[in-house]
Amino acid sequence: MNRIEEVLVALRRVIRATDLHSKFLAKTCGLTAPQILLLQTIRDKNEVTIGKLANEVSLSQATVTTILDRLEKRNLVYRERSAQDKRKVHAHLTDDALEVLKNAPIPLQEHFTRQFSDLQEWEQTMIIAALQRVAHMMDAQHIDASPVLDVGTIDRLTPSIEKTGAYPESAKESE
Question: How many domains does one find in the chain?
Answer without folding.
Answer: 1
